[in-house]
Amino acid sequence: MFKKSTQAPEEAAPREPAIQAETLAENQAQVAPELRTKEAKVSRTKDEQAPESTTAQDTAQSVESQAQNAPQSIKEEAKMATAKNEAAKPKKAAAAPNAGNTPAIHSNHTTISPVCQVKTGENVEIPSWEEVKAQLQESLRASIEQAHAELDEAAKKIAQAQAERQQNLAEAKAEVEKLDGRLKELGSELSQVLAMARQTLSGEALQEVVGQINLAHAAESERLEGELNAAEMAVAGLEVADEATHGDEDLELQLLKEQLRELEELGPEVANAVRLKLSAGQNARKALQLAREGEIQQASTALDLAVGAGAVGEVVEKAKKAIAEAARRGEIRAMIARIQAVDPTSRKPVDELTELAREAEQQEITDNVVSFLNHHLNLARQSERKRKREEAHLWALTRKEAQRWAENGIPEAGAILKYGPGVIRVFEETKKGWVLDGVHLFQDGVWKTRGRPARVPVPEVKGRNLVRVN
Prior knowledge:
By secondary structure, the protein is α+β, with helices and mostly antiparallel strands. Helices cover about 70% and strands about 5% of the residues. The strands form two sheets. It has a five-stranded antiparallel sheet with strand order 6-5-4-3-7, covered by helices on one side.
């Protein structure tokens, strides 16, 4: 892995040591050919005596032995060079303590860690460029999420603090209004008390009581005015503090937003992914809240947005469960409303309620509506039994009336009476066929004739309940 170099650049040496270094370099340049010639001779001698590879220590000893035979100036220069090399060794070791014999590679931008360099006989795995980018993007993602969390937390705390301050300010203003109203009431009470005293007292007693009233009124007024002034000062102090705190809170939010903006500019794609993830969580929580409030359609829409954005976890599962429960509650309420809408006095209420019971069983909500079903079924059955009794009675009454008409020649001989419960139709025979001559209804305990119907001839009168008038 590549790491930035943390080694601080060496400070520039003082001017005087720099001049000494330049003088030493010139002297070394003058004696360098002679030293190289002597080193070459020593190296050939060593190679003849020991064919093995020459180490750095042998070379240093050879140079030192040759330097002893050199002129005095050359020896002094060699000693100075050796001292300079020895002084440089600790700095190199400190710069790369774990590097061994391999020094770190420095550049203007990056220092390549020795760990990443390939040593003799060792295989060191260097991460790919994509892996490095992925690690940095993951780190940036975590930073952006943390910045969002800090911003949200700060916004919530600030909103809560502002609400508390507004509440305190409202209470202080209410106290001011209360004291001001009490002070005004005291003025009207003074007039009433003085009027009572003048009506009930006179002479010295009146003067004495009036004096006491004025003194008590002045003391109470002074007390109320003092409390009112203190309350008004408290309101002013709260307003000033709220304004100052509001400015600090705005600055805090601005700084957090600026920090978030800087992080998002480093990786727009990562920032968009984080915003999408956060919006998914918000929509999931919104769906859960809407489902609990019974807003099934809106909750389903919010949940779809959350799932589409990749939201997963406990909140999503809770939202799904809440929506399902809300939908079930809606089905139960709708079924109960349909059951209650059935009129027990209608023609076939039992059949309607039986069909609703079948639908409830299909929706698996029978246990939730069975009490309503049973109650309305009982009402329907009672109404149906009553209706059947009344209908049977009406049938018997109509049959008896039709037979009486037939026996007495009403309305005329040869007519056919077709009757039902509470209705008698009279058909007369003409040259073109049988025509409906009249309709008689039993209403309010008496038989009433309906308006004359259209005389449309038919070939014959069909039906079971027919009686011919004699």
